[in-house]
Specification:
CATH architecture of the largest domain: 2-Layer Sandwich
Bound molecules: zinc ion
Number of helices: 9
GO biological process, one term: DNA recombination
Domain Probable transposase IS891/IS1136/IS1341: 138-243
Keywords: DNA recombination, DNA-binding, Transposition
Order of helices and strands: HHHEEEEEEEEEHHEHHHEEEH
Radius of gyration: 24 Å
Domain Cas12f1-like TNB: 271-337
InterPro entries: Cas12f1-like_TNB, RNA-guided_DNA_endo/Transpos, Transposase
Structural class: alpha+beta
CATH class of the largest domain: Alpha Beta
Largest sheet: 5 strands, mixed
């Protein structure tokens, strides 16, 4: 369906929407070529078409400039499928339609009504995540603290009160190992048994890196979210920053190598993931995340407001040329970010800057009284 719709776009024809594609699905299931589709529960296939339809809608949505047209995904990475209903849990087993009862390890109690279940695979392991719905009271945040956060390459996060979350840089530690294992893979005969074993080893290494990084980000965002009702971050548009390293055909990037190195650190630090986790953890607790324009946050003096790049003579140290104020550069930036957050709250929506890091405009902009 993706292929058909992309072809239709190339031919300047309207794409097939969900209803039409679901109709085709029933025909395909009866055909010789695509008959294998009938082995899967039909709702799983429909969910897949719905996801595709949503992806096209988002891709065309002007309000979500970061969303792109859907593309083909490589088989073997992020494999998953979703059951929209008929899933139930019986003791240590989960019932999946057309598959039956499957034994599983339940990591936490299931509260509320089961809405859907997504089955995914990482390496050799299969996971099922169960989405539930239940009524809860509107949460009220336990803290009245406000903080600005500077996300960095050296440290994961620096707060405006001066505290630092170092984060784990697993890629640096494991990158050498990964490169070594990848060289080994290249020397082996493709698709041989040894090649497959080696590829398996690399998959495990990738998972290990991702887990270590995610763990560090979760620990930091939990602590920060618990202790602050309002969190101010820069709208960094990580996606744009990382995309720019490639340059374009007309304007090839001259410092690709240098930028690729920085981007690697940015990705390793998981800046977007950090924001994403803070956003939902704040929503759980009744707190708020504000995104501000990152312009000048590292050049401005947090004491007197003097803004110039000469203030930042080294990467680590900030010293103001106007008032002589000196401070750790990241802390100075975090203080500016906090101040910009107050400014956003004071004049919300008036000639303002529309944050859209998540691709959703203003989702994080619920007004909430700030405690100084
Ligand atoms: Zn100053």
């Amino acid at each position: 369906m993706l292929s058909i719709n992309l072809q239709r776009l190339t031919d300047k024809q309207p794409i097939m929407r969900y209803n039409e594609s679901a109709w085709w699905l029933t025909l395909w299931k009866k055909s010789d070529e695509f008959g294998f589709l009938a082995q899967v529960q039909s709702q799983v296939l429909q969910q897949c078409l719905k996801d595709l339809d949503r992806a096209f809608s988002d891709g065309f949505d002007r309000k979500q400039p970061l969303k792109r047209m859907p593309r083909f995904k490589k088989k073997g990475s992020n494999d998953s499928f979703r059951f929209p209903q008929s899933v139930r849990v019986e003791g240590n087993r989960v019932f999946l339609p057309k598959i039956g009862l499957v034994r599983f390890r339940q990591s936490r109690p299931i509260e509320g009504l089961i809405r859907s279940a997504t089955v995914s695979r990482r390496g050799k392991h299969w996971f099922v995540s169960i989405l539930t719905a239940r009524e809860i009271a509107e949460p009220i945040h336990q803290s009245s603290m406000v903080t600005g956060i500077d996300r960095g390459v050296v440290n994961l996060a620096t707060l405006s009160d001066g505290s630092v979350f170092e984060g784990s840089k697993p890629l640096k530690r494991l990158a050498k190992k990964l490169a070594r294992e990848q060289r080994k893979l290249a020397r082996k005969t493709k698709f041989s048994n040894n090649w497959k074993k080696q590829r398996e080893r690399i998959t495990r290494l990738h998972i290990k890196i991702a887990d270590a990084r995610n763990d560090a980000i979760h620990k930091a965002t939990t602590i920060i979210s618990k202790n602050h009702a309002v969190i101010v971050l820069e709208d960094l548009r990580t996606k744009n920053m990382t995309a720019s390293a490639k340059g374009s055909i007309d304007e090839p990037c001259t410092n690709v190598r240098q930028k690729a190195g920085l981007n690697r650190s940015i990705l390793d630090m998981g800046w977007f993931e950090f924001y994403r986790q803070l956003e939902y953890k704040q929503r759980w607790r009744g707190g708020q995340v504000i995104l501000i324009n990152p312009r000048n946050t590292s050049r401005k003096c947090s004491a007197c407001g003097f803004t110039d790049k000469v203030n930042r003579q080294t990467q680590a140290q900030f010293s103001c040329m106007a008032c002589g104020h000196t401070e750790n550069a990241d802390v100075n930036a975090a203080k500016n970010i906090l101040a910009a957050g107050y400014a956003v709250q004071a004049c919300e929506g008036i000639g303002g800057y529309a944050p859209n890091e998540a691709g959703t405009r203003g989702a994080a902009m619920r007004p909430l009284p700030l405690a100084a």
